[in-house]
Amino acid sequence: MHLGIFDNSDQASSAAAHVVINLFAQKPNATLGVATGSTPSGLYRELRAAHAAGDFSLKKSQVFALDEYVGIAEDHPERYRNVLRRELVGKENVGLTEEGLHTPDASAEDPNVAALHYDREIGAVGGIDLQILGIGTDGHIGFNEPGGSLVSRTHAEPLASQTITDNARFFDGDVSKVPTTCITQGLGTIMEARQIVLLAFGANKANALAQLIEGPISAKWPATILQMHPDVVVIADKAAASTLEYTDLYVERWQLAFGD
Ligand code: F6R
Questions:
Q1: Which residue has its alpha carbon closest to ligand 1 atom 10?
Q2: Is 141 in the pocket of ligand 1 (CB under 6 A)?
Q3: Active site residue 68
């Protein structure tokens, strides 16, 4: 696992964008896994700028969301499909087609059947080349909350109360408006991505990041399973990295791998 620590989230987002743009320069039809939430918005902004400059496009790509809220109205602005449409779909964004955007069918009668179908869809395109992740304050990735299986497939999952509180900011600050269930790629599904870039910004992520990088692998902090993945790049700002014990070592390791 490599950890890059940047002065602020803008610099960190730009570093993450380089990883994505480099992959697509080599493989224009790469399959991309995408997170929603506030963390990757700077990365998506960078990708839109690269698209406008003619340096990047998702036109030939299949893109898979990590998760979707169950029971959210089709036209709700916080439905993740709608969020990703705003960020990525169309020539004015990064050229992704509507057909190229895959999200779990959270309006299906049986969310678990929809989840199974979603895992199969990912398999049918040959798996995900690069998965972008954020991290929850409770250590979730996707919406794999503490105490779940470390090898789970895509499944329906209740959101932890901490996540509902954290996400209320997208729903007028009203916890009662936050959906209580989601369909999420499982940890086993996420671990099959060939490369993973995880972004962590802000002091409220410091504890989760410390567990991810330095803690024991534990269902209590689901992101720690990423320690077992051979190709993970974690990109953090200084605030998120503020409580790490071996920062000097991570900086040296980063410079050795990627230069300054
Ligand atoms: C969103 C997702 C979540 C978020 C996490 C952090 O698709 O899968 O794991 O990445 O909850 O959210 P933000 O970035 O809003 O702090």
A1: 134
A2: yes
A3: no
CATH code for the domain defined by 2-258: 3.40.50.1360
**Which position has the token pair 């998120």?**
240
> Using CA atoms, how far apart are residues 220 and 224, in angstroms rounded to an integer?
9
Tokens of 184: 């999420």
Is the separation of the CB atoms in 30 and 130 below 8 Å? yes
Specify which residues 26 forms β-bridges with.
none
Residue 102 is a catalytic residue: no
Each residue's pLDDT expressed in tens, for the chain with a length of 260 residues: 999 999 999 999 999 999 999 999 999 999 999 999 999 999 999 999 999 999 999 999 999 999 999 999 999 999 999 999 999 999 899 999 999 999 999 899 999 999 999 999 999 999 999 999 999 999 999 999 999 999 999 999 999 999 999 999 999 999 999 999 999 999 999 999 999 999 999 999 999 999 999 999 999 999 999 999 999 999 999 999 999 999 999 999 999 998 86
User: What pTM was computed for the model?
Assistant: 0.97
79 lines ligand 1 (CB under 6 A): no
Instruction: Residue 128: name the closest of 37, 219, 54, 231 by CA.
Output: 231
The helix (H) or strand (E) run that includes residue 133 is: strand 130-133
> Closest by alpha carbon to 98, among 131, 63, 125?
63
Is 61:90 a contact under the CB 8 Å cutoff? Answer: no
Look at ligand 1, atom 2, and give the residue with the nearest C-alpha.
Answer: 142
Enumerate the H helices of the chain as residue ranges. 9-26, 41-52, 80-88, 111-124, 161-167, 187-191, 206-214, 247-258
